[in-house]
Amino acid sequence: MLKPLPKSRQEIRAIQSERKKLAFQRAKQAPWYKGKLTGIDEDKLDDPQVWQRIPIIDKDTLRRMSHAEFMEQLCIVKPEEIAEYWRSGGATGVPLFYPRTFEDVKYGLLSWGRSFPCIGIEPGDLCHISFPIGIHPAGQIWARSAHEFGVGMLWVGAGNAVPSAAQLDLILSLKPAVLIAMSSFALHLANLADSKNIDLAKGPVNTVVCSAETLSEAKREKLTRMWGAEVYDVFGMSEAGLMGAEGNAHDGIHIWSDLFYVETVDIKTGEQLPEGEVGTFCVTPLWTGHATPFLRWNSGDMVSFHEHGKSKGKFAELFPMIRHARRTTGFFKIRGVNINHAEFEDFMFGIPEINDFQGVLVTDESGLETLRVRVEIKRGAATGKIVKALAGKVKRTFEVNPEIQILDLGTLAKAFESAIKAPRFVDERQ
User: Fold this and answer.
1) d(C-alpha 207, C-alpha 399), whole Å
2) Looking at CB atoms within 10 Å, which of 57, 112, 122, 235 has the fewest?
3) CA nearest 99: which of 260, 383, 262, 293?
4) Given a cut of 50, is residue 91 above it in pLDDT?
5) What tens digit of pLDDT does each residue of 292-344 get?
């Protein structure tokens, strides 16, 4: 039986008040929180000054523990109560594995499933999912949740399980209306299709749903153009669940605030920031924390909080919104010049003649650091002219002279499909 949407924001505030207290009581059972919650009045948690006394927890804190230590310090249920484990996301660091009870999984299915009606995916629609189907929850929970909402699902999995060419064949044969994939993999499929002279913009997919990677406007526009589809972003994490999705205005992620209590926080002070100010994103799961009662989990995302956006419909009326600030520490430093990965990605995807690219930091024959840009050029485009123009644009924009390497169409898609997240930037210095 699906949990119905709350009727109003007032009802959501009442749910938050009740569930924050329960989450706090569960946390007090975990050895890690021993002494850290002393003196905090559980009957006054709606007071920001009281709530902000709760310590923030993050992934680095957990990575200092072995799995046995983590289970001893932060798991509060018996082994027989554990339904499954969810692997943490991210492309770097040692993965973490979070125990989830049967109740956690039930609300996990609800949190992922809400993405369908929020986006406008209706009962009877067929989806093709290209997320890994395994211990990372995004693929298998998302796929399972579709059935709860009457939505059809092709359990395809990532490119390392089902090669890109086979995925294209499935899309063209079974004609799903929706592709659910990381934005990089959706681009790879489109580039591979182009190399085979297949025009996906005339194909069956009219909606592309992305998650797990930053979706810049340049990447969104490129996906829209290549797939001929409307592109939506959703946001979630293994520590909580799928927390929200875009509405039809695409101006931010509407957060299921009856399932997750979220804050934008000044990381130096731990204090909540006013609406519109950029801070680190903290979440307290209200229904998916039965095994691991995280309070004020710091995801590391930089976001701003907004009570309302411009989307229409029930989800936009009920749920507030976050906007990612897209701040990143990813950069190459080349001969004293910093090249921000996100800015360079936007720059490259903004050039229509370039299908795909990879930035590689290499050491040239003279021993100097050089930016090698591997590119796939759109079929029929004037390669020589584009390479010359690209080198000049990189020099003017980023103040480095790049080495441009032309690849056959589909090369990067084939290289990337074995990775969970596309290695868009690689350090190959000797």
Assistant:
1) 38
2) 122
3) 293
4) no
5) 999 999 988 889 999 999 999 999 999 999 998 855 446 777 766 778 787 88
Phi, psi for 237 (deg, rounded to 5):
-160, 155
Domain check: are 366 and 297 in the same one? no
Domain assignment present for residue 1? The answer is: no
Asked whether the predicted pLDDT for residue 389 surpasses 60, the reply is yes
Per the CB < 8 A criterion, the answer to whether 107 and 288 are in contact is yes
Domain membership of residue 341 as a residue range: 331-427
Cα 215 from Cα 345, distance rounded (Å): 10
Task: Write down the residue that tokens 């080495």 correspond to.
Answer: 403
Q: Are residues 302 and 422 in the same domain?
A: no
Task: Quickly list DSSP for 42-75.
Answer: GGGTTSHHHHTTSPPEEHHHHHTS-HHHHHHHH-
| Residue 186, C-beta contacts closer than 8 angstroms, at least 6 positions apart | 130, 179, 208, 210, 223, 227
Euclidean distance between the first and the last CA atom of the chain, given in angstroms as a whole number: 58
Report the C-alpha gap between 5 and 82 in whole angstroms: 27
Conformation bin of residue 145: beta by default, left when phi > 0, alpha when psi is -120 to 50 = alpha
Of 313 and 184, the structure prediction assigns the larger pLDDT to 313
Are 178 and 255 found together in one domain?
yes
Of 273, 304, 324, the one marking the end of a domain is 324
Q: Which residue type, as a one-letter code, is found at position 60? A: D
Are residues 192 and 77 part of one domain? yes
Q: Please give the tally of structural domains in the chain.
A: 2
Same domain, 313 and 356: no
Give, in order, the Cα–Cα distances in Å from 218 to each of 121, 221, 378. Answer: 24, 5, 16
Instruction: Please determine, for residue 83, whether its predicted confidence score (pLDDT) is greater than 60.
Output: yes
pTM of the entire predicted model: 0.83
Q: Are residues 360 and 261 in the same domain?
A: no
Strands (E), 247-363: 253-255, 260-266, 271-272, 278-285, 297-306, 321-324, 331-334, 337-340, 354-363
CA 356 to CA 187: how far, in whole Å?
A: 8
Compute the average pLDDT of residues 60-84.
94
**What kind and span of H or E run contains 15?**
helix 9-27
pLDDT of residue 202: 95
User: What does the radius of gyration of the chain's CA atoms come to, in whole angstroms?
Assistant: 23
Q: What share of the chain in percent tops pLDDT 90?
A: 62
